[in-house]
Design brief:
Elements lengths: L3 E5 L3 E7 L5 E8 L10 E2 L1 E6 L15 E8 L5 E8 L5 E9 L5 E10 L3 E15 L5 E6 L10 E4 L8 E2 L1 E6 L5 E7 L12 E9 L3 E10 L2 H4 L3 E3 L5 E2 L3 E7 L2 H15 L11 E5 L6 H15 L3 E4 L34 H10 L3 E6 L3 E3 H5 L10 E2 L2 E2 L1 E2 L7 E3 L5 H18 L3 E4 L21 H19 L29 E8 L7 E2 L15 E2 L6 H12 L2 E6 L14 H17 L6 E3 L10 E7 L5 E9 L5 E4 L9 E6 L8 E4 H7 L1 E4 L3 H4 L10 H10 L2 E10 L1
Parallel strand pairs: 21-22, 21-33, 22-23, 23-29, 30-33
Antiparallel strand pairs: 1-2, 2-3, 3-4, 5-10, 6-7, 7-8, 8-9, 9-19, 9-20, 10-17, 10-18, 11-12, 11-14, 13-16, 14-15, 15-20, 16-17, 24-28, 25-26, 27-28, 31-32, 34-35, 35-36, 36-41, 37-40, 38-39, 38-41
Helix pairs in contact: 6-7, 8-9
């Protein structure tokens, strides 16, 4: 019997060995080009945490002895090792897939569990548990779910100073500070992480014994202990849990992220649309004359240069007709248009959108329905999600009462497939904004839905994935889902962390707040500074460079969707002040000249000499022929800085066009000059802000606000190799 197995894809070589105690060891994890070895002969497997009294010890790899290993070489150059384990008390087995994908420096983990009896209350599954070398302390960086840009991607600690039982709630990078080799840990969240209603927490747990770093990666059900939720692995059924991806790179954390992005795009993510990252206009009204208003906004969207126009809520039959009420839940559960708002039909509006050269998007909240549809029997009680016999609902002012559907019920999934596919065909829809806004939670403890009372959340997510799959199979080029994070099922918003790891390809949602009708815009993404609000109130004076700063702050995140979230006519973008729309349009024009570079490598760190209240973001093409750089001054006392770019061709000459300047004022530098000597930056641009005395034309309060804006500024530069 073999006790040692080796697989390789030409980039990574993986060696496994069965030790005398029957454990499977990760003996070598070697980068083929450099020979750098991450392996440290530590056990490898899957960890499971369960409440079943007869299953104590499942969280210890030592209690999962190896039964067999099968090795398969794939025709494209990849390789797979599949290890079978059996829990030493009997009754459950696990299968661990270790895949080296073709042509990439990566290792993918996949884990399935198959029980011989019902195992109750599994509340944590970690498909990747393994150990790596730590000859020197490894620096640790975490890209977590915190949207505070000052924390994302910054050093957390190192392996020599790990706190007790550290948990890193997001994608994590380990870097050898001497050899500059990096290991990045990412994964498929499985669709759980969304909208602040997380049923599960995806995380990386580390420990250090002085010689090696042990890590376990996966997710746990946050409500498991408190509400009897968790997961029951069905008897005799193989259940696969979230996948984990390791990628390997040389350099710093930006280099690690860029390799990860390339790997996931090549092997995991759906292809992007040709126009991505898109710029979308999002609009909705509760007024009964909404159809006329939408046509007016369509003209505006064409003039502004948007790629998409998306009808948000309140387009369906039974929707609210009272203006300014924000009641988008009235009528939920219908997938046919409100004929009062669309007397010519929704298809006529869709045709008008396409005639303008734009894509047509539509908003849905499939897992929620207007409670009136339940009362009148249009939605059967058997479709409803319940906990303890009580139907889940949203009773939020100013919304009409809603009930939540259980997508763990196959009947609900089949009904929604039919309704959504029919809607797409009927209205020639290009894009869906799937928004679970009325959702209470994803749990359901009914026992008549085809899932265990403990498996409501997991089954709901799996049901939603089946709907996604049905849409993509019928419409391979279809785009969505704006408010859902699911790595494998989503062409838009593939990863939670926006510009940190991936630019948003169509979905950074920018809104006006729920109050103050004369407000336009707003954003809350990684690109933002912390001092400036994300809405511009009417009535203030705005310096031109500050307006550029405002728009570039959300454009640097990639694609975006902007509109009137409250359904208020007074908040529609076409009614924004002329100066606002003028600044918006010029920056749309600029953005279209650089956005193709958002698909390329991305750098955040090491660009500026001074980082306190300054930020810079660089995108550079793989062939180094083009790059673009955004620079922001976020209220810093000094307006001068030095920008040193990265990853350019040192021997090439580049033309640098600043969109703050006019034609004929381009700069010319070599790649080496730009990387070593750098460029002097002054923000805001002196010619855009000098020579104006606000005290002479404004009242004291407005003049003071205007002067504060002069501590903010931005630049957008396009570099072209000549």
């Amino acid at each position: 019997m073999d006790n040692k197995w080796t697989i390789s894809n030409g980039f990574i070589s993986l060696s496994l060995r069965k030790d005398d105690n029957g454990m499977l060891l990760l003996e070598e994890l070697e980068e083929c080009g450099s020979g750098f070895n991450w392996g440290f002969s530590k056990p490898v497997g899957c960890l499971v945490y369960c409440d079943d009294p007869g299953c104590e010890g499942m969280e210890d790899i030592a209690n999962w002895p190896l039964e067999s290993v099968e090795v398969k070489e794939e025709a494209d150059g990849g390789a797979i090792a599949t290890a079978a384990f059996r829990y030493n008390k009997g009754g459950i087995s696990s299968s661990l897939e270790l895949r080296l994908p073709s042509g990439s420096p990566a290792l993918f983990f996949g884990c399935s569990l198959t029980p011989e009896k019902e195992f109750t209350r599994i509340y944590e599954v970690r498909p990747a548990a393994f150990g790596v070398r730590a000859g020197t302390p490894l620096d640790i960086y975490c890209y977590g779910t915190d949207k505070n840009s000052s924390k994302l991607g910054l050093k957390q600690t190192d392996t020599a100073n790990l706190p007790e039982n550290p948990v890193f709630p997001g994608f994590t990078v380990l870097i050898d500070p001497i050899d500059k080799h990096s290991l990045m840990i990412t994964g498929d969240y499985g669709g759980y992480m969304e909208s602040n209603m997380n049923e599960a927490l995806w995380s990386v747990k580390l420990d250090n014994d002085g010689h090696s770093v042990g890590m376990s990666v996966g997710f746990e059900w946050l409500t498991a202990k408190a509400t009897q939720q968790g997961f029951v692995v069905p008897k005799g059924q193989s259940t696969r849990f979230c996948d984990v991806y390791l990628t390997f790179a040389n350099g710093d954390r930006d280099d690690a992220v860029n390799v990860m992005r390339r790997v996931l795009r090549r092997h995991i993510l759906l292809p992007l649309s040709s126009s991505a990252p898109d710029m979308a206009m999002n609009v909705w009204f509760t007024d009964e004359d909404a159809g006329r208003l939408y046509l007016e906004e369509l003209d505006y969207a064409k003039w502004m240069g948007f790629d998409n126009i998306t009808l948000d809520a309140s387009w369906y039959e039974g929707s609210c007709h009272t203006p300014g009420t924000n009641d988008w839940s009235a009528g939920l559960g219908s997938y046919h248009e409100d004929m009062t708002k669309f007397p010519a039909g929704m298809r006529a509006f869709s045709d008008a959108v396409h005639a303008k050269g734009l894509k047509f998007g539509i908003w849905i909240d499939p897992q929620n329905v207007d409670s009136e549809r339940v009362i009148n029997g249009q939605i059967p009680d058997s479709y409803l999600a319940k906990i303890g016999g009580e139907a889940l609902h949203c009773n939020c002012h100013p919304l009409s009462l809603t009930n939540q559907l259980c997508l763990g019920n196959p009947e609900v999934v089949d009904w929604l497939k039919g309704e959504i596919l029919g809607m797409i065909e009927r209205y020639n829809v290009d894009y869906i904004k799937w928004d679970p806004s009325a959702t209470d939670c994803y749990s359901c403890d009914r026992d008549d839905h085809g899932h265990s009372p403990h498996n409501g959340a997991h089954s709901h997510i799996e049901g939603r994935k089946r709907i996604f799959k049905a849409v993509i199979e019928k419409y391979p080029e279809f785009e969505g889902w704006e408010c859902i994070q699911d790595v494998k099922a989503s062409r838009i918003n593939p990863i939670l962390h926006a510009v940190t790891l991936f630019p948003d390809y169509s979905n950074s949602f920018i809104i006006g707040p729920m109050v103050a009708p004369l407000v336009w815009g707003g954003t809350s993404y990684i690109s933002q500074s912390l001092e400036v609000g994300w809405s511009l109130p009417s009535g203030q004076y705005f310096e031109a460079a500050f307006l550029d700063y405002f728009f570039r702050n959300f454009m640097v995140s990639g694609g975006f969707s902007i509109g009137n979230i409250t359904g208020m006519i007074s908040q529609r973008l076409s009614g924004a002040p002329l100066g606002y729309n003028e600044a918006f349009k010029r920056n749309v024009i600029y953005q279209k000249q650089v956005r193709h570079l958002f698909r390329e490598d991305f750098y955040r760190f090491g660009l500026l000499d001074e980082n306190e209240k300054w930020r810079a973001f660089q995108f550079v093409s793989t062939d180094k022929a083009e790059a673009c750089v955004y620079v922001f001054r976020d209220g810093a006392q000094t307006g001068e800085n030095k920008l040193r770019m990265r990853s350019l061709d040192p021997n090439a000459n580049y033309k640098i066009h600043s969109f703050n300047e006019r034609k004929g004022k381009e700069l010319y530098r070599t790649g080496r000059q730009l990387m070593e000597e750098g460029l002097d930056i002054k923000l805001p641009h002196p010619e855009l802000t000098g020579g104006f005395n606000p005290d002479k034309v404004m009242n004291a309060e407005d003049a003071e606000q205007f002067k504060k804006q002069l501590a903010y500024g931005s630049d957008l530069m396009l570099l072209t190799r000549i």
